[in-house]
Design goal:
heterotrimer; A mainly alpha (257); B mainly beta (158); C mainly beta (106); A: 257 residues; mainly alpha; Cytochrome Bc1 Complex, Chain D, domain 2; 2 domains; 3-stranded mixed β-sheet; 7 strands; 7% strand; globular; C: 106 residues; mainly beta; Immunoglobulin-like; 3-stranded antiparallel β-sheet; elongated
Chain lengths: 257, 158, 106
C-alpha cells in the first residue's frame, strides 16, 4: 500500500494541469487494455465464466415467484426479444420514483411492484444472475442512455462526483481515467472506465459483480468511504459513466482483470 | 534405471524447475509457501522415480499475467495417441504457490489428441512445470516462467 | 445453485477428434485464505472430474486448490459412436454434479 500511495501521489501532482474529457475518437473499452488471453476468455461463450450467471438468470427468468405467482417471462415473454437493448439503456428514468434507476434496481422494482416479492439483496447470486441474463441480451448494441430534462440533473450530479477529489488520497476519478488512462498503476494499465460490459466477471473477484461493486472497490482504493449499494451518488455516477460511453458497444458479460 | 543424482542434476532433470537460481536462499521456508524442494517431493510422489526428460511437452502460459487468480494454462504433448503409443497422464506443479500440486489429467488412446487446458491460480511470479507420463513409462516435461502482477487497488472486504 | 456449461459438438464424423469444453460454477476455496479477523476459511474445492462415453471412462482429472474458481477444463476425445457423454464433478462437502450431452456420430 505504501508503494501504491507514492505512485498515486505522483500521478495526482502531475494531473492538476489536465482536465479534459476523452475525445470521442479516442474512447476505448477496457477490453482493449486486456491481454490476449483475457480477451479470449471473454469472447468464447464456452469459456466465459460470466455465462454461468447468464445460464442461471435464464432459469430464474422462467421461475414463478411471489404472491402473484408470476415469472419474469409471464410479462416479458422471451427475453431475447423483450430485453434487447434494455441494459444498454440503463440507468433509465423511473417516473414513479422520480429519478433514474440502475438495471439491478429495475429488476428489484419488478420484484416488489409486480411479483409481490421482497427485493433481492445487492450482489446476491440471484440478482446478479438476472442482471447478467438481461444484460446479455444487449450484447453488441450501442450504449444509449436517454438524457433529457428529467435525467439531466442526475447526469450533472454524476459528472460532479466523477470530477470531485475524494478520500485520503484526494483523487478524482477523472484524474486517473480521463487524464492518465493507458498509463500504469502498480503494474496494471489504467483503463478509461467505460462500463461497457457490466455485470462483469472480474478475475480479482473470482466472480461476477455489478458496476456498483466496482465503483465501491475504486472508492476503497482511493481510501474514500464507499457509498452504500443503491445510493443515489452511485446511480448518478452510473448514469454519467454510461452517458460518457454513449455509442460504445455493450459487451456484457465482460471479463476484466 | 536408478542412479544417485546430486541435487543440481536432479533439478535440471526435472524440466529446469528453479534451474539452480537462488538455491542458497531456498532453506528459509515461509509457512504458507511451497519451495522448490517441496515441489520436487510432490513431483516424485506423483510420477515415481524414473528420469524426467525435457521435451515432447509444451506448456502454454501467458508470460505476463494480469491477475494471478485466473490464469489460462494449456499443455500439449507431441504423441500419436494410439493404443501402442499415447499419453497416460499430464501433471502440473508450481514452485511458489502455498502447495505445489495443480492438476493431474488422465488421458489414454480414446483422447485422440494430447491437449488439455484449464485455468489456474498463481500466487507469485514463478516457475510452473508440466510432466507427462507416456504409455511406455517414460516421463517428459516442460516448464514456463511467468510474471504475475497484483491488482493496484485491493478490495478489502467490501 | 451449481450450474455447468458443457460444450460438445452435437454431431461428429466417426473417428473425428472432438474438443470438449466444460465450465462449472464453484468457488474453489483454497483453504489458505483468512477472514478479516484472521480465521482460516476452510478448504472447499472440486477434487475430481470424470467424463464417460457410453459408460467408458475417456477422461479424468484430479483438481487441487490451485485450479481457479469456476473450473474450466478442455480436453478431447475420439467420436467413436453415437450416444451420451456423462460428466461428473465431485468435491469437498459432498459436492456432486452430473451433466450429460448427447452426440450423434455418423
Amino acid at each position: 500500500m505504501q508503494r501504491f500511495g507514492a505512485a498515486v501521489g505522483a500521478v495526482a501532482i502531475a494531473a492538476s494541469a489536465f482536465a479534459g474529457e476523452i475525445p470521442r475518437s479516442d474512447r476505448r473499452s477496457g477490453y482493449d487494455f486486456m491481454s490476449r488471453e483475457t480477451r479470449a476468455m471473454q469472447d468464447d461463450d464456452a469459456a466465459n465464466p460470466g455465462q454461468l450467471w447468464v445460464l442461471e438468470g435464464g432459469t430464474l427468468w422462467n421461475r414463478k415467484a411471489g404472491a402473484a405467482g408470476r415469472a419474469c417471462a409471464d410479462c416479458h415473454g422471451d427475453a431475447r426479444a423483450s430485453m434487447k437493448g434494455v441494459a444498454a439503456r440503463h440507468p433509465a428514468f423511473d417516473a414513479a420514483r422520480g429519478r433514474p434507476v440502475s438495471l439491478e434496481q429495475r429488476v428489484n422494482l419488478c420484484r416488489t411492484d409486480r411479483q409481490q416479492e421482497p427485493p433481492l439483496a445487492w450482489e446476491s447470486r440471484e440478482l446478479l444472475a438476472l442482471a447478467a441474463y438481461v444484460a446479455r441480451q444487449s450484447r453488441g448494441m450501442p450504449i444509449e442512455v436517454a438524457i433529457d430534462q428529467r435525467t439531466q440533473p442526475f447526469l450533472d450530479a454524476g459528472r460532479a462526483t466523477f470530477h470531485r477529489r475524494q478520500g485520503q488520497l484526494n483523487l478524482a476519478c477523472s484524474q486517473c481515467h480521463d487524464d492518465h488512462w493507458g498509463r500504469r498503476l502498480a503494474g496494471n494499465v489504467i483503463p478509461q472506465a467505460h462500463p461497457t460490459g457490466y455485470p462483469i466477471y472480474r478475475l480479482e473477484w473470482q466472480g461476477l459483480g455489478s458496476l456498483q461493486r466496482r465503483l465501491r472497490n475504486c472508492l476503497v482504493g482511493i481510501r474514500a468511504e464507499p457509498y452504500e449499494y443503491g445510493a443515489p451518488e452511485l446511480v448518478d455516477l452510473e448514469l454519467y459513466l454510461m452517458w460518457r460511453a454513449a455509442g460504445m458497444t455493450f459487451e456484457a458479460p465482460a471479463v476484466r482483470p | 534405471m536408478e542412479r544417485h543424482t546430486s541435487r543440481r542434476e536432479f533439478l535440471l532433470a526435472a524440466g529446469g524447475v528453479a534451474a539452480g537460481v537462488g538455491l542458497g536462499a531456498v532453506i528459509a521456508v515461509e509457512p504458507a509457501r511451497a519451495t522448490p524442494i517441496a515441489t520436487q517431493e510432490a513431483i516424485r510422489k506423483v510420477v515415481g522415480s524414473a528420469r524426467i526428460n525435457p521435451g515432447k511437452v509444451k506448456l502454454e502460459l501467458p508470460p505476463l499475467i494480469e491477475n494471478g487468480n485466473t490464469v489460462p494454462l494449456a499443455v500439449t504433448v507431441d504423441s500419436p495417441m494410439t493404443e501402442a503409443n499415447h499419453v497416460r497422464a499430464v501433471h502440473v506443479f508450481t514452485e511458489k504457490n502455498p502447495q505445489p500440486y495443480v492438476v493431474s489429467f488422465h488421458l489414454g488412446p480414446r483422447a485422440g489428441r494430447a491437449r488439455v487446458a484449464t485455468r489456474v491460480r498463481l500466487a507469485n511470479s514463478q516457475s510452473v512445470v508440466a510432466i507427462c507420463e507416456l504409455s511406455d513409462g517414460t516421463l517428459w516435461s516442460d516448464s514456463a516462467d511467468v510474471v504475475v502482477t497484483l491488482a493496484a487497488c485491493l478490495e478489502d472486504g467490501i | 445453485m451449481a450450474s455447468a456449461l458443457i460444450n460438445v459438438p452435437a454431431r461428429a464424423k466417426r473417428g473425428e477428434v472432438i474438443e470438449i469444453k466444460t465450465l462449472i460454477s464453484h468457488p474453489m476455496e483454497t483453504g489458505f485464505r483468512r477472514t478479516q479477523v484472521g480465521a482460516l476459511i476452510p478448504r472447499n474445492i472440486i477434487r475430481g472430474f470424470v467424463c464417460t462415453y457410453n459408460g467408458t471412462e475417456v477422461f479424468r482429472a484430479e483438481l487441487h486448490p490451485a485450479i481457479a474458481a469456476n473450473p474450466f477444463i478442455v480436453f478431447s476425445t475420439v467420436a467413436t459412436e453415437s450416444g451420451t457423454l456423462v460428466f461428473h464433478w465431485t468435491g469437498d462437502n459432498g459436492f456432486s454434479v452430473t451433466e450429460s450431452a448427447a452426440i450423434t456420430v455418423e
